[in-house]
Amino acid sequence: MKKIIIIGAGGHGQVVADALLLMEGAEPVAFLDENPAVIDKKVLGIPVPGGNSSLSDIEHDGVVIALGSNSLRKRIFTELTEAGETLFTVIHPSAVISPSVKIGAGCMILAGAVINTGAEIKDNTIINTNSTIEHHNVIGPHSHIGPGSTLGGEVTVGEESMVGIGATVLPRVKIGNNAMLGAGSTANRRIADGVTAAGMPAKKLKIQR
Fold first, then answer.
1. What CATH number should be reported for the domain whose range is 2-88?
2. Does an H or E element contain 3, and which?
C-alpha cells in the first residue's frame, strides 16, 4: 500500500482525498496545509500535522499537490521534483480513460472524467469532475480543465492554462500558455498566450490593471 501525502486540505484537496480513498493500492496518510485553522486537526479523518515543511517528518511514498492555483501548483511541483519527491497521480475509479492515453506525474483525474484515445495529459494537471477530453488532445503541464467542460478532438491546451466550468473547446482549437477560458464559454478559435477569453463565441476580455 502506497502512503500518499496530499498538499492542500481545502475543498479541492478533499475531493482529491475522496478519489484517493477509492483507489486500490494507495492511501492518504496526511494533509499538509499552511492554514493554521486546520493544523493539528483532522479533515475527512486524515490528520493535518502542519504545513509543507512537515513533509520530511512523515513516512510516505508519494505526494499529490491538490491546489487549485496553477502557478502555485507549478512552483511546488518544481520544488518537490528537484528535492527528489515522487509526484503521485490520482485517478478516480469512475474515470473512463483509453489505454492509449499518456498521463504525466502528479495529475488529478476526478470522478466521471472521460479521456479518449491518443490524448496526452502532462504533469501536474487537474482533469476535473465530469470533464471530457476527446481524442488526441494535448493538455499542457500545470493546467486545469474545469468540471463539466468539453474539449473536442485534437485540442491543444498550453502550460498553466485554465478551461472554466462547463466551457466548450471546438475541435482542433489551440489554447495558449497561461490562458483562461471563462466558465460556460465556447472557444471556436485560437486563444493566445496570456489571454483571458469568455462568451459564446469566446472573445478576449479587456482587463483593467
1. 3.40.50.20
2. strand 2-7
